[in-house]
Design goal:
about 20% helix, Molybdopterin biosynthesis moeA protein, domain 3, MoaB/Mog-like_dom_sf, molybdenum, alpha/beta, molybdenum cofactor biosynthesis, 5-stranded mixed beta barrel, MoaB/Mog_dom, Molybdenum Cofactor Biosythetic Enzyme, Chain A, Molybdopterin biosynthesis moea protein, domain 2, 4 domains, 6 helices, MoeA_C_domain_IV
């Protein structure tokens, strides 16, 4: 469906729209890049993480003590520190001091804990060995070539540590999608309080912050607006954003009023609609279109409504699954919450209702101040309770939950 004419088809079902966006993102995912392990945090594995050697690669002591051979008492003939390759224990009745992580000498039978050892008058070591083995055997954690983490897994500190322990210096990952934002609307102010018929732009700060939490790179200067309410200005603003971005989010202009220039601009740019309006409330109308660049790569334009909460619904409904695909990740699965209070349905539309989730009880309470143009409810929200078309959410019902994107350490 091209942008040459205004689409007259019925709105896309909300769950179908999520799937379409994810599939489009997966098809356009950029090629993997190699980055140093230290720089991979927050990215996505593009290749399976397999062991480059057995883990551990050699037998290592799991305690501080003495590696011994034969029966007690043992004559101490040396010391093994972590990072050294010891000589073999050739004779029964001998031992070496060993530190945790030290390589077990060839010929050693057991490890005696230092706190369970005593010295005889002639300086030998004695003690009762435990029945449990006090060292780690080669391959105890993983064998050479074993799959540890599959491609598509988000890289977090645990993955980084595991990769480093295996000997990886670099990791093949999906790069962060580059995003740009274009704010439409002559009525918007970028500083000071609203007044005289003009309102303060809330989406200029809000949308880039959310895009970063969805895993995007939003470079300095990538947010531009307000853009003049003319068709030429809209075309130029979107075209300039497409030059450096994989995703361009626009705010406002998704209707067909006298100063709504997004649809004509998409037509002028040769864009193809992937989704044009979604059967969800709030959030009507929203869209995602695709433009193929001269390099053959697809770029995406997400048309977000101008009302702040509707724009957030569009981000959660269309942009999050699109970015998951571009990042090489799985389609985000929906959790569930128990409703503490009733949430009305919206007829044939999915209703995404902002809720606050109580950490102790796990119940979700719908918020006040949640009109399309309001942000007060959003500031206290943890996400959306999804009420399916043709239903309503009764108190005590378990319904799907769409979480808001958070950074580590933010409120749950």
């Amino acid at each position: 469906m091209t942008a040459e004419t205004v689409a007259t088809t019925a709105p896309t079902a909300w769950d179908r729209a999520r799937t379409l966006m994810y599939e489009a993102g997966r098809a356009a995912a950029p090629a993997p890049v190699e980055v140093p392990v230290d720089d991979a945090d927050g990215l996505t594995l593009a290749q399976d993480l397999v062991t480059l050697t057995s883990l551990p690669a050699f037998p290592t002591s799991s305690v501080d003590g003495f590696a011994v051979r034969g029966p007690a008492p043992w004559r101490v003939v040396g010391k093994v520190l972590a990072g050294n390759s010891p000589a073999p224990l050739a004779d029964d009745g001998t031992a070496v001091e060993i530190a945790t992580g030290g390589m077990l000498p060839p010929g050693a039978d057991a490890v005696l804990r230092v706190e369970e050892s005593t010295r005889t008058k002639d300086g030998r070591i004695t003690g009762r060995l435990r029945e449990t083995v006090e060292w780690r055997r080669p391959g105890e954690e993983a064998d050479l070539g074993e799959l540890l983490i599959p491609a598509g897994t988000p890289v977090d500190p645990g993955v980084l540590g595991l990769a480093a322990s295996c000997g990886y210096d670099t990791l093949a990952v999906r790069p962060r999608p580059r995003a740009a934002v274009r704010i439409f609307g002559d009525e918007l102010l970028t500083q000071g309080p609203p007044g005289d018929g003009r309102v303060r732009d809330a989406l200029g700060p809000n949308v880039p912050a959310l895009l970063r939490r969805y895993g995007c790179q939003v470079a300095p200067g990538a947010v531009v607006g307000p853009v003049e309410d003319t068709l030429d200005a809209h075309i130029a603003a979107i075209r300039s954003a497409l030059a450096d971005a994989d995703l361009v989010c626009t705010t406002g202009g998704t209707m067909h009023g006298p100063v709504d220039h997004l649809h004509p601009a998409l037509a002028a740019l040769g864009a193809e609609y992937l989704v044009n309006t979604v059967a969800v409330r709030p959030g009507f109308p929203m869209l995602v279109a695709r433009v193929t660049g001269d390099d053959g790569r697809d770029r995406f334009i997400a048309g977000l409504p101008g009302n702040p909460q509707s724009a957030l619904v569009a981000l959660a409904s269309l942009v999050e699954p699109l970015l998951a695909g571009l990042r090489g990740r799985a389609l985000p699965t929906l959790g569930s919450v128990l409703l503490a209070e009733p949430v009305p349905g919206r007829g044939d539309y999915t209703h995404l209702a902002l809720v606050h989730v109580d950490a102790a009880s796990g119940t979700a309470k719908p918020l006040r101040h949640v009109g399309s143009a309001m942000l007060r409810g959003l500031a206290s929200a943890h996400g959306f309770a999804a009420i399916a078309p043709g239903t309503s959410g009764e108190a005590g019902a378990r319904v799907p939950f769409v979480p808001l994107p958070l950074l580590p350490g933010e409120r749950p």
